[in-house]
Amino acid sequence: MAIKKYKPTTPGQRGMTGYTFEEITKSTPERSLIIHPRGYGGRDTTGRITVRHRGGGNRRYVRIIDFKREKHNIPAKVAAIEYDPNRTARLALLFYADGVKRYIVAPLGVQVGDTLISGPHAEIRPGNCLPLSDIPVGTLVHALELQEGRGAQLVRSAGGSAQVLAKESEYAQIRLPSGEVRLIRQTCYATIGQVGNLDHKQYQVGQGRSQTPYGHPPDGTWYCHVPARPPAWWW
Hints:
There is one protein chain. By secondary structure, the chain is mainly beta. It contains no helices and 16 strands. The protein has strands spanning about 5, 15-20, 35, 60-65, 75-80, 90-95, 100-105, 115, 130, 140, 145, 150-155, 160-170, 170-175, 180-185, 190. The strands form 5 sheets. The protein has a 6-stranded antiparallel β-sheet with strand order 9-16-10-13-14-15, with no helix packed on it. A 4-stranded antiparallel β-sheet has the order 7-6-5-8, with no helix packed on it. Strands 1-2 form a two-stranded antiparallel sheet. The protein is globular and about 55 Å long. About 25% of the residues are buried.
């Protein structure tokens, strides 16, 4: 995927970059794999407003992603590469041979039409999911489990990868993107390859105020909502 640069017609657009989305092959999500999480509008279990200024807004949808890859030894065809607004990585839509549809985090190099499979003794190629006991030392992996059957919890963001360093007894030594070396049971599953969307690290939002809608105001202004009492300074 390439990064496009904007012509700075305003000061806030200077240095701003964006995605070209050239790898996206489908613009709408799979209807059976999205849910609308219930909103609480800042209310607690008694129905009273405990957090102000919450509620309303556009309806949000969450994609249901298969982090467990529990359909073993059933081939799946990559039907589409999709955008997910809830994460930095892209999603790959899989059509299994038995008719089931699932989302996975799209690995680097996986394209539409490829066939993926999960389970012991699967081929060592990007997108296939195997237990650590069957993955050779030195292989790059992502979407690692910490407990067998719980689903992937580590290395799921754009461009992330871990490396299998060694195997000893019932544990494998995994070097995480932070440089930490962690012991994980060899019965835990991991996906071969590196997470796609490597150019995400080149993405620049422009000025700081662009992050205001996402909960990151650029200034440190403190507002006193109770004028009757003096401000309580942070120190």
